[in-house]
Amino acid sequence: MAALTRSSFTVFRRLVTQQYRCQCFWMQHVRCFRPVPSLSVACKRSPKILNSRSLHAAIVNRGPIIQFKLSDIGEGIMEVTVKEWYVKEGDRVSQFDSICEVQSDKASVTITSRYDGVITKLYYDVEATALVGKPLVDIETESSSEVIQEEDVVETPAMAREEHTHQEIKGQKTQATPAVRRLAMENNIKLSEVVGTGKDGRILKEDILNYLAKQTGAILPPAPSPAPTPPPPPATAVSPAAMLQAPPTSPKPVFTGKDVTEPLKGFHKAMVKTMTASLKIPHFGYCDEVDLSRLVALRKDLKPVAEFRGVKLSYMPFFIKAASLGLMHFPILNASVDEACQNITYKASHNIGLAMDTTQGLLVPNVKNVQVLSVLQIAQELNRLQVLGAAGQLGSADLSGGTFTLSNIGSIGGTYAKPVILPPEVAIGALGKIQILPRFDTSGQVVRAHIMNVSWSADHRIIDGATMCRFSNLWKEYLENPACMVLDLK
């Protein structure tokens, strides 16, 4: 009897504490041996009838409304543009669910939830500017009081720069974005065992992939490949209709009759910063032409093989791999200098960027560690970057860390260009379109040749003309005689 009385009194004491006063229930199903005064609780929800067994579960499942703040996404970015909402008010979300997509002046980032709960408020409209450290959404959580108290500590202004990016592991604070934590969780990787290469030791997506590579012996985690299909039979004839290409689509002009002024933002704003910084670099230009006739024949033979493996093979993987082989002999072209031009850093990795023309503007994602990738692996990575670029979903990891750049202006139709160096890099090349032109062979006969023009720009503070010329000659030799690349492949 005494034990039962104490149990009933404990239940009643929980009802009147400040922690549970906001819960909704009726007292008629709580039996007590002593008189219990009626308790009235104001609540927005309809009252629920709970017995003493379900009382504890209901109390734990309810939680306060948390302001989910926009975390620091790195690179010194303080504001972003909200491009798309994946949730609306009233939607239920779980941890790692996508909330929205934001775009900075450097990359597009998908923001994911840290909590399980219900979205109660969206603070921004689409195309509005959101500030780092300010509330993004309100989430009515479903965590216990102990968890919420721990999260409240993370949300304090003193830790605004690191909120939403930390994970406590055995007393150590490991910095990683929710997307990286999810990738680690899906591959059963403990973040405490991964060495972060980002700012202040932050773990990046590449760190997870490199850790997987060491564990599995692969360069990149294996991607699901489509079911093998036999190579297509050789075409015997091509109809005239098949040779016609659809004209490129371009937006129709809109004439409003009024001047329109709007602020520069997103990638256009990033271009302003980058090009302003590049004006400080004295550019040295060098141009040459490359005979790709043998490479054209080689690609024609390898293209069906690559398609059989689910990879679209263009000329660009050969250009990138040849550049990497050339950088082995001329590492100064894969270097960077500090702002005062007093120190030079020779980069160990060949992270070769590819300038892409997208609907969002000029983007330059890069293929990481080209020096250890095969031509087919480079093509596979390029396919991934091109798909993300067309969808506007390139992340900061894909757009940062470049050490050398190639710009394929020929994909639009140009032949020569004057490429602008992207700081802190020291060299860049622009590739023209491939043209069939008459040339003389070794016996003096006129033959059809596939000619491509290349334009180089180098930082003349540390790179002289002779070095740029020798690199270009070596790169040209690899492409004009692709069999020579086999001798230097690793």
TrEMBL record:
Keyword Kinase (UniProt): no
Major localization class: mitochondrion
Assigned EC number: 2.3.1.-
GO MF annotation, one: dihydrolipoamide branched chain acyltransferase activity
Domain Lipoyl-binding residue range list: 65-140
Family in the record: Belongs to the 2-oxoacid dehydrogenase family.
Name of the featured protein: Dihydrolipoamide acetyltransferase component of pyruvate dehydrogenase complex
Species name: Takifugu rubripes
